[in-house]
Automatic annotation (TrEMBL):
NCBIfam families: lysA. Pyridoxal 5'-phosphate binds at residues 243, 285-288, 385. It comes from Hyella patelloides LEGE 07179. Pfam families: Orn_Arg_deC_N. Keywords: Amino-acid biosynthesis, Decarboxylase, Lyase, Lysine biosynthesis, Pyridoxal phosphate. Its EC number is 4.1.1.20. Belongs to the Orn/Lys/Arg decarboxylase class-II family. LysA subfamily. The active site is at 356 (proton donor). This is Diaminopimelate decarboxylase. It catalyses: meso-2,6-diaminopimelate + H(+) = L-lysine + CO2. Pathway: Amino-acid biosynthesis; L-lysine biosynthesis via DAP pathway; L-lysine from DL-2,6-diaminopimelate: step 1/1. HAMAP family: LysA. The lineage of its organism: Bacteria, Bacillati, Cyanobacteriota, Cyanophyceae, Pleurocapsales. Its cofactor is pyridoxal 5'-phosphate.
């Protein structure tokens, strides 16, 4: 959880930093990342795997949740590996100093250029489909002296209860090889000298509160692992994906990291025993549950509007461009007023963003103290899939981000300026001339 308290001025303090002072220094909207909380989550995953799993284990961060140099640096320093899903995420982790050996490259449509980049860096590739498998066998001999190390992603056919946009384990999913194809894939891979299949991967979805699907997955993977033995594949790794949900509002009640790890580790050991398999290296790739709760977004409250007998709006200086989750998935969030922490919660207001559409609502019907323009509204649990999904809609620059720890605050992402917004625009001479 967040390293947060209310200080003597009645202000919210995160990582020992008064949020009002951070806002005065860095402006709003502002992502505030609590380093201690992020490190704690990393350690919880890592240590619980050591406690509950008898074999070798590795936790890799699904960097799609938030990829930037500072975040990758912190997580790397905790000894975790990385899941990347594009050349851009791969580049970011490399620039942050991550050893390619600990990077796993995902994605259902990696381009030939991305595959070449991955092979040259020597990271591991999680192969999703036939085209990729064949492209790799063509690229690999020229780009790498040793066989390219891959994992195969399979569709496990496991349903879970979460938003349909973020389910991936069901058979009708674009990700991974269909189970019907497995033997053909194993056969093909076993005949290739340029690639070496280290393991199998499956991921069932995101923001999941149930433990059952995570408990069922190892059984399915172990069956496939058994099958792989028939083809003499040197498989030593099982990657069970990520997916553990976090608490956004009071009504969310996710299992803890320890509970999740325990269930997964036990299920893998049990399944391996049943199929008489040696314990594989176990990989998990959490994103949201590693970083989601470690960050908040601070906004400045602006105008308000009363719609008699229906609702009161207050508007903030960001919205769907820095947090597209409410408008995309109807996600719910909580907020507080950082400069009025102990005021009574007397108002029911809808917190609107500043973008040009009615759906740009950060929180519907939030319960808050009475607010005034200039107050600082802080939305919690914005570490995952906020900055990484941010846009420049309405030509609004993306916010700055700071990391806070023990009273110190450091800028980790600069605020985008107007100039940044037009930096890559080009005005062809022809258009300039014809305008006059
Ligand atoms: N591994 C794979 C292969 C994945 O596709 C994902 C997430 C993860 C791991 C990490 O899952 P997590 O532990 O974060 O649940 N934009 C959506 C979430 C999309 C998740 C995509 N894949 C959202 O804002 O809710």
């Amino acid at each position: 959880p967040l390293t947060a308290k209310v200080n003597q001025k009645d202000h919210l303090e995160i990582g020992g930093c008064d949020v009002q002072l951070l806002v005065e220094r860095f402006g709003t909207p502002l992502y505030i990342l609590d380093e201690f909380s992020l490190r704690t989550a990393c350690r919880q995953y890592r240590d619980n795997f050591k406690d509950y799993y008898s074999g070798d284990s590795l936790v890799i961060y699904a960097s799609k949740a938030w990829s930037c140099l500072a975040v990758c640096n912190i997580i790397n320093s905790e000894g975790l590996g990385f899941d990347v899903v594009s050349g851009g995420e791969l580049y970011t982790t490399l620039q942050a100093g991550v050893n390619p050996d600990k990077i796993y490259f995902h994605g259902n449509n990696k381009s030939a250029t991305e595959l070449e980049f991955a092979v040259e860096t020597g990271c591991k590739i999680i192969v999703d489909n036939w085209l990729e498998l064949k492209t790799l066998t063509e690229i690999a001999p020229a780009k790498s002296e040793t066989p390219v190390e891959i994992l195969l992603r399979l569709t496990p056919g496991i349903e879970c209860h979460t938003h349909e946009y973020i389910r991936t384990g069901h058979l009708d999913s674009k990700f991974g090889f269909d189970p019907n194809q497995i033997e053909e894939v194993f056969k093909f891979v076993s005949q290739q000298k340029a690639i070496k299949c280290l393991g199998l991967h499956a991921h069932i979805g995101s923001q999941i509160f149930e433990l059952q699907p995570h408990q069922d997955l190892p059984e399915v993977l172990a069956q496939w692992l058994k099958k792989a033995q028939e083809y003499n594949l040197p498989i030593q790794t099982l990657n069970v994906g990520g997916g553990l949900g976090i608490r956004y509002t009071e009504s969310d009640d996710p299992p803890s990291i320890a509970e999740w790890v325990k269930i997964v580790a036990e299920a893998v050991e049990k399944a391996c025993k049943r199929y008489d398999l040696p314990l594989p290296q176990l990989i998990a790739e959490p994103g949201r549950s590693l970083i989601g709760s470690s960050c908040v977004t601070a906004y400045t409250v602006g105008g308000s509007k009363e719609v008699p007998e229906i609702r009161n709006y207050i508007s903030v200086d960001g919205g769907m461009s820095d947090n597209p989750r409410p408008i995309t998935y109807e996600s719910l969030y909580r907020c507080v007023i950082a400069n009025k922490m102990s005021a009574d919660f007397t108002e029911k207001v809808t917190v609107a963003g500043k973008h040009c559409e009615s759906g740009d609502v950060v929180i519907e019907d939030a319960t808050l103290p009475k607010t005034d323009a200039g107050d600082i509204l802080v939305v919690t649990a914005t570490g995952a899939y906020n900055y990484s999904m941010a846009s420049n809609y309405n030509r609004i620059g993306r916010p700055a981000a700071v990391v806070v720890n023990q009273g110190e605050a450091n800028l980790i992402i600069e605020r985008e300026t107007y100039q940044h917004l037009i930096n890559r625009d080009r005005l062809p001479e022809r258009l300039v001339n014809s305008a006059n």
